[in-house]
Amino acid sequence: MKMPRIRSASEQLTDFLREQILSRKWTETMPGESWLVTQLQVGRETVRAAMMQLESEGILAPCGQGKRRQIVISRDAFTTRKICVRIFLYEKQDRGCIDNSSLLAELLAAGMDADFAGKSLKELGMQVNRVALYVKRNPADAWIVCAASREVIEWFSEQATPAIAMYGRHGGLPIAAAYPIMIPGQTAAVRRLVELGHKRIVMLAREERRKPNLSRPEQAFIDELVAAGITTSDYNLPDWEESREGLSRLIDELLRFSPPTALMFQEAQIYIAARSHLSDRGIVAPRDISLVVADDDPSFEWCNPIPSHISWDYRPVVRLVVRWVKKVAQGKADRQKSGTESKFVEGGTIGPVFSGKSFPR
Q1: Pick from 292, 289, 291: nearest CA to 343
Q2: For residue range 65-84, what is the model confidence (pLDDT) as tens digits?
Q3: Please, what are the domains in the chain?
């Protein structure tokens, strides 16, 4: 589980200045950096970073060296109404994830009536009819749908109530979306594994990422294996029961019949559970098997070695979702999709293919 990140001084100052502008403490032009440094008792670099962030948000505009920045925020920003926003989480335990907790905090700070939905998508079986019934019984002005299946996102895209896909299979659907672009980091990870001699690479992905057809990252994974001359099958993206027991059974079956030399996981909790099960079997990464996780959990900093993982910044995703909610509150339609690119962090859980005849028992 990702722990909340302490906000930097510049981020806190950005929030304060934004609030002051929206309350019309300043109009037309902003005070100069020197005045803000003196009055607010903060460093010049902190002030400069906050002002640049407000520029990137379209609230301020630079007017040249030595001149005060102009306040250019739209009049609509002052008429944003409070709306009811519900966040449909993938699993109920995702409430503690840093991206979701940060999103809720940002929405509340923006004056919205925001909260997590009482049921998660997994609790509703990711079934469209059950999701539709829940939405009907729990109306909201806007929905944020996290990591949903294509069928669920497609249903939301057809409704009159605005919705945005935060992650999930939204490609080609007429719905706003904010997401990490996983393929660059994932491709780099697969190529590194191939360089290290791995040919039996297995990815564990959730069912909605594999069915009714592969999502883009999963298809890119298979394509990269094929490009490396590796024959692929269901072995590389197996079906499995999504539970602790189901994960253990799958790993045992893989080790028994055709032991993979590398395992890739889409989520930190699945990686942690799998690594624990492997350890119980005496199988250690990277000595016996290579492990890669497509997640960047703060707890990784406490691990030795640091897990090989795919890293991406959740903060732009949260900002995009909050911005979308504000537009909805202003009565604006927005179906823009925007992603933040990932990168591969090699870490210490991958290595050359295990050269022994069999795994430790």
Answers
A1: 292
A2: 878 899 886 555 555 678 99
A3: 9-77 (1.10.10.10), 81-179+313-340 (3.40.50.2300), 183-312 (3.40.50.2300)
pLDDT tens-place string over residues 46-57: 999 998 888 887
Q: Check whether the bond before 139 is cis (ω within 30° of 0).
A: no
For 50, counting Cβ atoms within 10 Å of its Cβ (0-12 exposed, 13-18 middle, 19+ buried), the class is buried
pLDDT of the residue at 3: 42
* Residue 313, phi then psi, degrees to nearest 5: -90, 115
**Residue 326: partners with Cβ closer than 8 Å, 6 or more residues away:** 77, 80, 110
What is the phi/psi pair of residue 306, to 5°?
A: -65, 130
**Is 0.90 topped by the overall pTM?**
no
Average pLDDT (139-146) is 97
